[in-house]
# Entry
Amino acid sequence: MKGADVISELKRILGDDDLVVSSNGNVSRQAYHLLSGSQLYLRGSMGLPVSIGLGLALAQPEKTIVVLTGDGNFLMGLSSMSTVAYINPSNLKIIIIDNQLYATTGGQETSSSQINYKTMIEGMGILNIRSFDLRDMDQDIGNLLLLESIEEEGIYVLHLQVEEDTIELDNIPWHPEQITENFKNRHKGELK
Ligand SMILES: Cc1ncc(C[n+]2csc(CCOP(=O)(O)OP(=O)(O)O)c2C)c(N)n1
Ligand SMILES: [Mg+2]
# Structure
């Protein structure tokens, strides 16, 4: 499975009220093209999806916040995971789409291939971390694993190793200010 397959499947699984924060580059583009609703697609702000997801989770305790992050983004903002573990917001779900590359900028390798995500994240204090290698996995089985994992209660981290995507998607046609405005408008009256 590829990152785009994961995000397409998430479209089926996620609830209409869930708030998604996606990391800059391909992941945000895929979220923009493949998910429904107007989500918080980060642009430029590399390394910040987990921090922004944590802020949203605290500001909107009634909502489920799903952070979709590439491995490069996750590793850049790694220190924020220790704060997430410390605060432990039960409405925050973090999904790492790990292609072991900075795919957006030309496919340079990240350090992901030598990291044991389960050990690292457990060491920070989040015990609900599941890691799956979806690279050679049949899509139906991968979809089933996603469905089971997403429905779990409480905070969790889902680390997914995926094949590199080949699809080229158009960039998001909005500036960050417009993305934020659209996100707020979509949830007008619901967000505090
Ligand atoms: C501080 C900073 N450094 C570098 C970049 C350029 N950049 C944009 S996306 C990206 C790669 C992100 O990697 P990852 O999160 O793994 O997503 P992928 O591209 O693999 O989907 C890079 C290096 C940036 N936007 N900001
Ligand atoms: Mg990557």
Observations:
- The pocket of magnesium ion (ligand 2) is lined by residues 70-72, 99, 101-103 (CB under 6 Å).
